């Protein structure tokens, strides 16, 4: 499995995303630029320029028409994937830490940072899909989650409900219509939740945390289904489609990297068996912590973005699809 | 003021102050705490009263409790007109009274009279005591658990303890299927845990003191109240325990009293000795710090500060440069009421008891042998002072006869290493050249079992950093180095070392180099407790962490003959395997000598904490990387109860046994894989059931996500291939033939 090294960023990666077909890979970084790449050869297709701060988060809709991004310049922008033009920008009092499209691409949820006297807020916007440049400035819903601040979020499979991951390690469900916390699991993690990725049908999701664990939760009950315990703080977790694997990435904190050797850093991407909770393999390569992992929705390749500024795209070998390390077991998606 | 007062009084009359008065009423002395009853005073006529009181006053003053004759009161018997033979004395306050009681009580007034003092308040209490005798309720007998029940494990497994975070776990260690957690408890200990030397007790350290645990249910067996205890040390036969705390003992007012608690005399001491069975405190000591150099060079306290004789008969401590004090157990009295005065003494070690010695002792104790019981032996050394050479001495105790003395020159440091059977004593002598610039090493080996204690010298050019005897063997291993970096530790530098094995040549009676392994980084030697196998480890380094497994009798397959043919040539030294445990801090053999545990403890660093278990060939059996992992300890086993004959029998029939075990292993293996497959099947079934439930709950429209839809679209799509030929340019070229 020879990776393609994408060297288009000057600073560490914050989030990478595949489009639904898996032919395009979007990457956001602290160098203010969003790049889009062809996955099959690693050629850069273009950039989305305009942000004046770290781009913390991106998401692409299921038709690959619109891209939304959130940045430390206190704006959230909507881009045309095809032309690279910025269609609309929303301004907020603080940085945008997380954005996510809804299932039907009609809505966006975003989290703004708790800073400078402003509370952390979650906003939901309706997207005018017909005319990309004319969007409503005002959010459809706006609320401030009480308690520990929210750091990651996504639409759930239940209408009106948003899943959030919090700094305290809490995972919760909010009804955005009312702003009420519908369901919560205070002890989902014991440290900040770093990533939250949903299964294809949004009925379960995986979270990673600095507490060195990743967990699969049931979306409706927030019950912990599986736990994957590693020996390093985790920054990202992704669910492999069609295969019973979970991909975990992390490593020593960025600030202590310079004082630890490569070996101690544990900058590998780990493959864990989703059901048996056993580690099945590791992929080395990054020389800094892995910040973000994404898997193509078709399940034929995955990419990891690191603190080292590189994105590594791995196309799975034939053996990955053929291998049945645990024998013939029918596992439901 | 008077008129004012009256008017106020007039107002006051209406108000009820009684509650306030009650609250703020001045608490007068109850008045009797400072009164003492002095009994044993001569019976006198009133005429002599003044004289007597003056005399008593004088006696009291002599004892440091002055009292005026006016403060004494003599009760008179009205019928006889004489005194009643006791007087009341009033002191200024209760403290003075208490002091007087302690000072004057039992004081002989004259040949016939002796004072006995009591508090006045006590008299009343004693007088009212119920005189009828009540039988104390006999406590019902509770069968105690067998403290060594773990030895009765049908599979003969060993136990080990792990301490991680706040959780202490006791594990069984056997074949993979037999390895399981036997017991676990959170916050079992506050500092660390420790086994007793024979594995009977588990000690945990807490703020209030030490607790011992044991038996299959791990109930508390004993407790020792030594607040802020930091270090503990068991006696070899688990009869006594020494504890140390950095903070001197303080006995607060109203502290619990009794044989198990500190009394005011113990205040200020740091070391305490306890009887394990009763829990009683035997004696306390102050910590002995090397004198004279505290300011410039604060030397670390040596622990164990008290050294037990191998038979638990004595415990000794050294006062550096002055003496060795030996106390008998359990009385803790100084033997012969005097210490062994040795000018300049630095360190000493008791000679351990060999298996044979123990058998002998047992015979004498049971009356089967009428030999004279052997005496204990200890070795100590004194450094060079002025014109006197350094000296190593073997001393018999309690007869205090010097058995052997050897003078040494140019000595900078000595270390005493007894072989665990007490057959040999190796003194590792660090010597310096005349210029004191370089250091080299001599090994002075005392043959303790031979007549006149001959000394064999092994001279080495390098510095020896570690020395270790083969248990029950006649071989030893050393780690030596000539690395210039030795002695100036710098981060990232691993000292290059050589490891050498030496063995005793029986015919010549000297120690011969068997083999040297040059260019290693190993700094730790760990012999298997049964001898023969040895592990060389690089411990505490950040870059290297190699473990080398060696067999010293590789050619001797037949274990039954091993006893007879000891390989003296070193040909049998064979490398078995190499392992690597990153950032290892501790290396420990299990008591059977079959497995080795290595651990990386969070007490030393926070990188990849956890532990690994290896077999003696260097095959990794288990590895656990656990956050906040602190400690792994094998549970020691007491010596075997099988007789020599029985052991020989087993060794002879080893083939028979091993066939049986092989069969068990094979059956087990197939069992495990079946179990594992079943377990996986169960997990998959659970997962599938959950997924199915999810899908039902969500309804049909939500079942397919975007990616799944995509796939469907793929299937629905009709593939149309269109070939487009686009002519960009047409050039006709004429080619000349």
TrEMBL record, chain A:
Component of the eukaryotic translation initiation factor 3 (eIF-3) complex, which is involved in protein synthesis of a specialized repertoire of mRNAs and, together with other initiation factors, stimulates binding of mRNA and methionyl-tRNAi to the 40S ribosome. The eIF-3 complex specifically targets and initiates translation of a subset of mRNAs involved in cell proliferation. It holds the Pfam family EIF3I. InterPro entries: eIF3i, WD40/YVTN_repeat-like_dom_sf, WD40_repeat_dom_sf, WD40_rpt. Gene3D superfamilies: YVTN repeat-like/Quinoprotein amine dehydrogenase. WD repeats lie at residues 6-47, 48-89, 186-227, 283-313. This is Eukaryotic translation initiation factor 3 subunit I. GO terms for cellular component: eukaryotic 43S preinitiation complex; eukaryotic 48S preinitiation complex; eukaryotic translation initiation factor 3 complex, eIF3m. Component of the eukaryotic translation initiation factor 3 (eIF-3) complex. It is found in: Cytoplasm. Belongs to the eIF-3 subunit I family. Belongs to the WD repeat STRAP family. PANTHER family: EUKARYOTIC TRANSLATION INITIATION FACTOR 3 SUBUNIT I. One of its GO terms (molecular function) is translation initiation factor activity.
From TrEMBL, chain B:
It comes from the Eukaryota. Residues 34-122 form the RRM domain. Its main location: cytoplasm. One of its GO terms (cellular component) is eukaryotic translation initiation factor 3 complex. GO terms for molecular function: RNA binding; translation initiation factor activity; translation initiation factor binding. The keyword Cytoplasm applies. GO terms for biological process: formation of cytoplasmic translation initiation complex. It holds the Pfam family RRM_1. The keyword Mitochondrion does not apply. InterPro entries: EIF3B, eIF3B_RRM, Nucleotide-bd_a/b_plait_sf, RBD_domain_sf, RRM_dom, TIF_beta_prop-like, WD40/YVTN_repeat-like_dom_sf. It is found in: Cytoplasm. CDD domains: RRM_eIF3B. Keywords: Cytoplasm, Initiation factor, Protein biosynthesis, Repeat, RNA-binding, WD repeat. PANTHER family: EUKARYOTIC TRANSLATION INITIATION FACTOR 3 EIF3 -RELATED, EUKARYOTIC TRANSLATION INITIATION FACTOR 3 SUBUNIT B. Belongs to the eIF-3 subunit B family. Component of the eukaryotic translation initiation factor 3 (eIF-3) complex, which is involved in protein synthesis and, together with other initiation factors, stimulates binding of mRNA and methionyl-tRNAi to the 40S ribosome. RNA-binding component of the eukaryotic translation initiation factor 3 (eIF-3) complex, which is involved in protein synthesis of a specialized repertoire of mRNAs and, together with other initiation factors, stimulates binding of mRNA and methionyl-tRNAi to the 40S ribosome. The eIF-3 complex specifically targets and initiates translation of a subset of mRNAs involved in cell proliferation. Component of the eukaryotic translation initiation factor 3 (eIF-3) complex. This is Eukaryotic translation initiation factor 3 subunit B. It comes from Cerrena zonata. The gene is PRT1.
